[in-house]
Design a protein that fits this description.
Blueprint (H helix, E strand, L loop, with lengths): L27 E11 L1 H12 L2 H5 L3 E2 L11 E8 L2 E15 L2 E8 L5 E11 L4 E12 L2 H6 L1 H19 L4
Antiparallel strand pairs: 1-7, 2-3, 3-4, 4-5, 5-6, 6-7
């Protein structure tokens, strides 16, 4: 598995950092969110799962052991596949959200990734203590096989995103 942070790859889209604002034109956009509980303990556990890459692992995505916690400039290799047939998708963290009651990060795709765009993962605790996990993304196909996959590719992307939400809710720590 590649060494984290040493990808030598470049972003595949010009709108780096746009995940914090309105999604740019020319991409597919989506947001999925789920209320996951109430209180500080739920919030802290969800944030730990998010920043420990547990949500990716719970979704069946391999993240190299020793990959640093999300911080601006950290490269992460996300591997997925079945058995020995694996595909690597590199991303770079472009933004970290660290506000009272709101934590998360965004990463953008790097060369070789099947999609081109950005994904933002946020855990929020409102004034009533309710905790919500939200994932937003803007993307477009970057490889010939994702263009051919069309709607099937989008279905897979949405399924993985729902599994990310499941991983924020349950599992270690």
């Amino acid at each position: 598995m590649p060494v984290p942070g040493e990808s030598g790859r470049e972003f595949t889209y010009p709108d780096v950092g746009a995940g914090r604002g309105s999604p740019p034109a020319g991409y597919r956009h989506f947001t999925i969110e789920r209320e996951i509980g109430c209180g500080d303990r739920i919030f802290d556990a969800a944030v730990a799962r998010l920043f420990g890459w547990h949500m990716h692992r719970a979704a069946g995505i391999r993240v190299a052991p020793g990959t640093p916690a999300p911080a601006p400039g950290v490269d992460v290799c996300l591997e997925w596949g079945v058995g020995p047939i694996r595909s690597a998708a590199w991303c770079r963290v472009v933004d970290v959200i660290d506000e009272p009651g709101r934590r998360g990060f965004s990463y953008g795709t790097l060369t070789g990734h099947p999609e081109s765009g950005e994904e933002t993962f946020v855990v929020e605790r409102d004034t009533d203590g309710r905790v919500t996990a939200r994932i937003t993304a803007f993307s477009r196909s970057a490889r010939w096989y994702t263009r051919i996959a069309g709607p099937l590719g989008r279905l897979v992307q949405h399924r993985i995103t729902r599994r990310y939400l499941d991983g924020i809710v349950a599992g270690p720590p």
